[in-house]
Amino acid sequence: MNREQLAVYFIMGSGNTAGRDPLAVLGSALRGGVTCFQLREKGPGALKGEPLADFAAGCRDLCRQYGVPFIVNDDLELAVATGADGLHIGQEDGNAAEIRRRIGNRMILGVSAHDVNEAAAARSAGADYLGMGPVYGTRSKPDARAASGTELITSAKSAYPDLPIVGIGGIREDNAAPVIEAGASGVSVISAIAHAGDPERAARELRQAVREALEPGKVSK
Ligand code: TZP
Ligand code: MG
């Protein structure tokens, strides 16, 4: 994957869309310009078995239409069965090096990291990018750690400048810029898009905010 594909990294499960059809929300997000998508099916009422496989296939097909990578959170079997472009794992989701061996080098591997030590381990295990956060307070992950601000991105970026980072946690259009300025290649969001009254517009505004922060002065308002 290239860094540009991390610019606006949308994450969603079927329970994140405030009662709306999740595939419709994903379609709107893709029209608005999200550059990557992760299916993260968690929490009460999470789909399993065949309904999950069908939903995943629907997400994959939509992402393909837009040429956007389709990543599966923490379910290697689903990722492989769906022909996903990648897998994202947390620190509790198994050994990253072992998972890299199992998925091979052609699949994208993303790893959540919370400090420079975890970043170093993920990097040597063969992660393509790191998810770092929560940067700001979040209501989308009940077991999230305390918000860390952008500091952890700054320190991981200075230790490993070549390893792409996406910030996560409470990021919206109006607080995305400091995440990019700290060294992230992009922002990953659930609620800023999935809960938005107009997910397409929310995605477009986030994309614009990230673009402006990546190339200050180059983008006209
Ligand atoms: N990991 C750290 S914070 C978070 C995850 C999955 C949730 C991000 O959701 P939101 O709504 O963008 O804060
Ligand atoms: Mg996990």
Automatic annotation (TrEMBL):
GO molecular function, one term: thiamine-phosphate diphosphorylase activity
Organism (species): Bhargavaea ullalensis
Cofactor: Mg(2+)
Domain of life: Bacteria
Residues annotated for 2-[(2R,5Z)-2-carboxy-4-methylthiazol-5(2H)-ylidene]ethyl phosphate binding in this entry: 138-140, 170, 190-191
Described purpose of this protein according to its UniProt entry: Condenses 4-methyl-5-(beta-hydroxyethyl)thiazole monophosphate (THZ-P) and 2-methyl-4-amino-5-hydroxymethyl pyrimidine pyrophosphate (HMP-PP) to form thiamine monophosphate (TMP).
Listed EC numbers: 2.5.1.3
Transmembrane segments: none
Thiamine phosphate synthase/TenI domain span: 8-193
Pfam entry (one): TMP-TENI
Residues the record lists as binding Mg(2+): 74, 93
Pathway listed: Cofactor biosynthesis; thiamine diphosphate biosynthesis; thiamine phosphate from 4-amino-2-methyl-5-diphosphomethylpyrimidine and 4-methyl-5-(2-phosphoethyl)-thiazole: step 1/1
Family, per entry: Belongs to the thiamine-phosphate synthase family.
Residues the entry annotates as binding 4-amino-2-methyl-5-(diphosphooxymethyl)pyrimidine: 38-42, 73, 112, 141
Gene3D superfamilies xrefs: Aldolase class I
Cofactor note: Binds 1 Mg(2+) ion per subunit.
Swiss-Prot/TrEMBL keywords: Magnesium, Metal-binding, Thiamine biosynthesis, Transferase
NCBIfam families assigned: thiE (TIGR00693)
Catalytic activities: 4-methyl-5-(2-phosphooxyethyl)-thiazole + 4-amino-2-methyl-5-(diphosphooxymethyl)pyrimidine + H(+) = thiamine phosphate + diphosphate; 2-(2-carboxy-4-methylthiazol-5-yl)ethyl phosphate + 4-amino-2-methyl-5-(diphosphooxymethyl)pyrimidine + 2 H(+) = thiamine phosphate + CO2 + diphosphate; 2-[(2R,5Z)-2-carboxy-4-methylthiazol-5(2H)-ylidene]ethyl phosphate + 4-amino-2-methyl-5-(diphosphooxymethyl)pyrimidine + 2 H(+) = thiamine phosphate + CO2 + diphosphate
HAMAP family named among the record's database cross-references: TMP_synthase (MF_00097)
Enzyme category, top tier: transferase
Organism phylogeny: Bacteria, Bacillati, Bacillota, Bacilli, Bacillales
Name recorded for this polypeptide: Thiamine-phosphate synthase
PANTHER family assigned to the protein according to its UniProt record, in alphabetical order: THIAMINE-PHOSPHATE PYROPHOSPHORYLASE, THIAMINE-PHOSPHATE SYNTHASE
